[in-house]
Amino acid sequence: MEYQTIKTEREEAAFIITLNRPDKLNALSPELTGEVVDALNNVRTDETVRAIIITGGPKVFAAGADLSKMQTANSIEMYNRNLSGDMWTTVAEMPQPTIAAVAGYALGGGCELAMACDLRLASQSAKFGQPEINVGIYPGAGGTQRLSRLIGLGRAKELVFLGGQIGAEEAQRLGLVNKVVPDENLLDEAKAWAKKLASKPPFTLRLVKQVMDQGYDLDLQSALKLERLGFIGLFGTEDQREGVTAFLEKRKPNYTGR
Ligand code: CO8
pLDDT of 218-232, one tens digit each? Predict the structure, then answer.
């Protein structure tokens, strides 16, 4: 499929999606979110894709959902938009680890897109916020839930109720961002993280992602059981043997995802 609002590329084991509506600050139109879903669905079962980077390029990540497509939308239309797949859920449920590389504005649905990823790198220019309240709505793609899980309910309410913005350093201090890097290093750093992720045992990484995501919403005892069951299951994989054997033989492991 030829995309109009995103660019996709492969670099070694990394699949990179770049949001590409610079004139509209990468506002997340239904067309754009549909293209992201399509691109992700195409690599979901591709075992050679070991990490996914989502970026908006060097100037802006995304200034939120496209408000021009919301002005006259009614509830039925908003409901129907999700029928072919919700971008934020699709991102969060990808089997591969995902990295958001954020420069400039990550507002509203843009901040929610970054939060749907597993890891967040921000350049010094990054600005995060949930300004929906200023346009008469509230965050509808994870901002009322993922944000409080990442930074705590009190600070999340401050961002959601007041609709302000925070810079990259503050976002890192709060735990919204994993690492802040100089603007010019953002994509290289994201690629370096992707490379590191690609060197890990891929099936193990997929399993631990699921255990951590699903366990987070369970009571502790159930989550610990989930962890243990998955852990035991790892002992049926070749990569578990390879990892331990390589350590004992003092060599680098060669993981196959089997
Ligand atoms: N939607 C549509 N167009 C936008 C958006 C947006 N969110 N943000 C910016 N643009 C457009 C502007 O209209 C402008 O276009 P044009 O040049 O044709 O007039 C262009 O991008 C540049 O924007 P500005 O001139 O406003 O640039 P500034 O540097 O002056 O300001 C801001 C930058 C502060 C980011 C400002 O553009 C702004 O406040 N944007 C809106 C931010 C916002 O409110 N975002 C939340 C949107 S709601 C949302 O995200 C809900 C998510 C839940 C989705 C669930 C779906 C099912």
Answer: 999 999 999 999 999
